[in-house]
Amino acid sequence: MNNFRDEDYRLFLATFIDKNIVSGFYNQLSDKVGKSIRGKLVESWNFHFTWHFFGECNQNDYNDILMELNPYFKEVNSLMEFKGIDAFPNFNNPNVIYLKVNNPDNQIFDLQNSLSKEIAKMGFKVEKKKFTPHITLVRIKEISDKTILKSFFDENKDSHFGEQSSFKINLVNSTLTPKGPVYKILK
Fold first, then answer.
1. CATH code, domain with 76
2. I need a surface site. Which of 15, 33, 35, 126 has the fewest CB within 10 A?
């Protein structure tokens, strides 16, 4: 059993991807876009998409999550395709650049629906907005050259970067540090 102090951990459910799938693209992103923005490139070993963010949790929450969601912590044989990039809130005023995750058999959406119901039953708040599985690549604070960014978007908005034949839902602890979050897979 993990012995956490309440202030020491923040929990979320995530699926990590094989960083090698998009490593070439990531290097291109860093070279081309890195000079035109002020922000943070997500480290390739942290590439994941989030199913649910619980936030600050105590030991009882942690134990409940492990018990109630245990059936979900397994390998799922379902294709994930990484096709195209997009931005939140949009391309014209991006705060986040992300890689789109496509799942042809929609198991990701079925699992998300089922997870949300279980999480709500446990008393945690569930997102109301539409679930958009995505891999955050860059968090933007300021753009110095929009033409470079626009060109990069235009070149890559529909590109196929790779695929992964299966995925796993993990319970993850996020520790915030001055250099960014440090993730530890707990289950």
1. 3.90.1140.10
2. 35
